[in-house]
Predict the 3D structure of the following.
Amino acid sequence: MNYTTEIMDIYKETSPEENVLIPDDISVKDDRKYKLTARNINAFYGDLHALKDINMNFPQNSVTAFIGPSGCGKSTFLRLFNRMNDYIEGFRLEGEIILDDVDIYNEKIVIEQLRKDVGMVFQKPNPFPKTIFENVAYGLRIQGENNKSFLQDKVENALKQVALWDEVKDDLKKNALSLSGGQQQRVCIARALAVEPKIILMDEPTSALDPISTSRIENLIFELREDYTIIIVTHNLQQAGRISDFTAFFYLGDLIEMGRTHDIFTNPKNKRTENYITGRFG
Ligand SMILES: Nc1ncnc2c1ncn2[C@@H]1O[C@H](COP(=O)(O)OP(=O)(O)OP(=O)(O)O)[C@@H](O)[C@H]1O
Ligand SMILES: [Mg+2]
């Protein structure tokens, strides 16, 4: 794999002053190094200015962690990428989110297709009250897929990807809610993977899990980056350090600093980042 080299190359294009990846340096049209770009993002809930002039790029096959104190806008930003804020009353967005050359807020975008391309895993495992098999097959069924052996293949593959297959292969008809929390979360990740997304969004995916399940999910995220572009919100700074290539620190709706995870944790440029990662506030 040469993705490390690619990441390093991309990182060279970051601004030394701000340590923020600058989208304007790169024409989205003729350069596909960035899978996903957020440009000049401002977001509001009524009068509350929740995200302020955010610019960010996400290289393909990378893991980016969002960190920052409660209420600083991490989830709001994450939810923009699959338009989960669309239905919140009073929510307003300025700016562009570009996935593979396409502005996902373009009126021609079909939301169902977008949500297939941009999968989401939530804080609390949320399997449907259905069998394990039907949970993982859910997205494919929605797309109208009913071929039994095709579904079986896809379900098996997705469960293997999340390292759950051996644990559940004889119990696929069991209700997913009867699994442990860590197993349920892996079912939810398998459900997201089964439709072959491009991006996986995770909002504190391990905060409800015990340390063993957490470490399994962390390993999984580490492996999934070979095939996907992943964005994860986490309050667990060690976790961000372990699994992410890039870290973005938010504070009160501002992106304070973004850079390679190793640099953010060993040599932050901004005092507020330093205070946060050393536990002095937040
Ligand atoms: N549905 C909503 N309606 C109105 N305000 C909201 C809504 N969701 C979030 N906010 C506000 O937007 C700001 C950012 O919230 P957000 O949930 O994005 O923060 P966060 O960084 O994810 O916090 P946490 O770490 O606690 O999950 C907060 O001030 C919050 O109160
Ligand atoms: Mg949140």
Remarks:
- The two ends are 37 Å apart (CA to CA).
- Confidence is low (pLDDT under 50) at residues 1-32.
- Residues 45, 48, 50, 68, 70-76, 88 surround adenosine-5'-triphosphate (ligand 1) (CB under 6 Å).
- Strands lie at 34-45, 48-59, 63-67, 91-99, 102-103, 118-121, 199-203, 229-233, 246-251, 254-260.
